[in-house]
Structures are given as structure tokens and as C-alpha cells.
């Protein structure tokens, strides 16, 4: 059994010039919709649209899955850099992901106890201690938005009722998908996780499988 280690209104008066409306005057839902439009390509088709220059295999695809897998659950293949969301009827949706760099990736079996649209973000103490020049400036947190490291959507991974601080989340750096880039989390293209978000229920299981180096070390 795998162990814990070895596993983000404009209105116009009639016949008047456009009225500029600040972000502060927008409702939360309107602000989210505005940001969603910013991170979604025009005429977006998930399986085709690729302004990020991803390898085509990392675009969303519906694939066959084993009958033994539980619908609703998420499986992250750290070797191929795929996330699978298990569906009814023998299929799964597959997405490209990035995983953590070095030994920061933490394979295991987790429960999604929370999910959020356009979340705020605060680096962990370990992140600040490890890379103070990058993270210390955000010790008090970073507001939501297209430049926030958690991007447009986030799933929060727990062990029992304990927050692991691991997330599956959107990223403002979509070119990292397919590689090892984060400080522990699983990254997705924001347009992709936006499509996945409503399909994932609180309480489902997320399986993060080991990358090739851990498998080799254990064999």
C-alpha cells in the first residue's frame, strides 16, 4: 500500500458613452465570470483549443476505463502526467497535468473535502522557509485573480479531516503542464479545470500515484 511519502457591469446609458465600472463594483459572480472569460480561449472546444501550445495528448479526452474504478473518483497518473475523472458507463475524462518538482510530490490516497472558485492563496511555512525570495512577500496571502497561483478553481485534498495543503488547481502557467513544476500540488490548465469543477463532488477520493523515480526506488 502506498504511503504518504511514497505517493482563480459594464453598462451603457442610452445614447451615452460607455460607463467604466471598476472591479470593486462588480458582484462576486460577475467578477468570476469576467475572469473565466479571460482564461478561456475564444470559441473554446476542450479537445481542440490549444493556444497554450500543449502537446495534443494533454488536451481533454474521453477514454475507456476499467470497470473496477468508482465513478466520481479522481486518479492522477504521475508518470504520464494525466488526471482521470471517472464517469458512469465505462468512461473517464482525461486531462494533462503538472506535478510537483523533485521530492515535493506526495503520492497517496486523499479525500476532496472542499472545492473553491477563484480561491485566495497563502504559501505554507515550508514554502516560505524553502524559497523566501519567492514566497515571503505573500506570507499574508494573495487575493484571487488570473495571476493567483491556485488559478480559477481548486480541489482541497484531506487525509481524514486533516488538510494536507495539497491541491488540484488551475495554474497561470499552463506551459508547465506535462512537467514537474509545483511545490506539491497538481496543476491543470484553467479552462480545463473550469470544465471539470462542477462534475467533482465533495467527498470523492483522489488517488495520486507515484512518479517513475519513486517506483524505480521501490523496485
Mean pLDDT: 86
Strand/helix succession: HEEEEEEHHEEEEHEH
Shape: globular
Number of strands: 11
Distance between the termini: 14 Å
Helical content (DSSP H or I, runs of 4+): 10-25%
The name of the CATH topology is L,D-transpeptidase catalytic domain-like
Structural class: alpha/beta
Total discrete domains: 1
Q: How would you characterize the overall build of this protein?
A:
There is one protein chain. With 219 residues, this protein is α/β, with parallel strands linked by helices. It has one domain (23-44, 51-218): L,D-transpeptidase catalytic domain-like. 17% of the residues lie in helices and 27% in strands. The radius of gyration is 19 Å and the shape is globular. The model is unreliable at 1-21 and 215-219 (pLDDT under 50).
Write the layout of secondary structure elements.
Layout: H1 28-39, E1 61-64, E2 74-77, E3 82-86, E4 91-96, E5 99-100, E6 108-117, H2 125-130, H3 132-135, E7 153-159, E8 162-171, E9 180-182, E10 186-189, H4 190-197, E11 205-208, H5 212-218
Parallel strand pairs: 2-11, 5-9, 8-10
Antiparallel strand pairs: 1-4, 2-3, 3-4, 6-7, 6-11, 7-8
Amino acid at each position: 500500500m502506498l504511503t504518504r511519502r511514497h505517493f482563480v457591469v459594464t453598462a451603457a446609458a442610452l445614447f451615452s458613452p460607455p460607463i467604466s465600472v471598476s472591479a470593486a463594483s462588480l458582484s462576486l459572480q460577475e467578477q468570476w465570470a469576467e475572469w473565466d472569460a479571460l482564461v478561456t480561449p475564444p470559441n473554446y472546444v476542450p479537445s481542440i483549443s490549444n493556444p497554450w501550445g500543449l502537446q495534443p495528448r494533454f488536451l481533454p479526452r474521453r477514454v475507456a476505463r476499467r470497470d473496477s474504478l468508482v465513478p466520481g473518483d479522481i486518479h492522477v497518473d504521475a508518470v504520464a502526467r494525466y488526471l482521470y475523472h471517472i464517469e458512469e458507463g465505462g468512461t473517464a475524462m482525461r486531462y494533462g497535468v503538472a506535478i510537483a518538482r523533485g521530492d515535493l510530490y506526495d503520492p497517496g490516497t486523499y479525500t476532496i473535502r472542499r472545492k473553491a472558485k477563484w480561491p485566495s492563496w497563502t504559501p505554507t511555512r515550508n514554502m516560505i522557509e524553502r524559497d523566501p525570495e519567492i514566497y515571503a512577500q505573500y506570507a499574508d496571502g494573495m487575493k484571487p485573480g488570473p495571476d493567483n497561483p491556485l488559478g480559477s478553481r481548486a480541489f482541497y485534498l484531506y487525509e481524514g479531516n486533516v488538510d494536507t495543503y495539497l491541491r488540484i488547481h488551475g495554474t497561470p502557467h499552463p506551459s508547465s503542464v506535462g512537467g514537474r513544476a509545483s511545490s506539491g500540488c497538481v496543476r491543470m490548465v484553467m479552462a480545463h479545470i473550469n470544465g471539470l469543477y462542477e462534475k467533482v463532488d465533495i467527498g470523492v477520493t483522489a488517488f495520486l500515484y507515484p512518479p517513475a523515480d519513486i517506483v524505480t526506488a521501490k523496485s
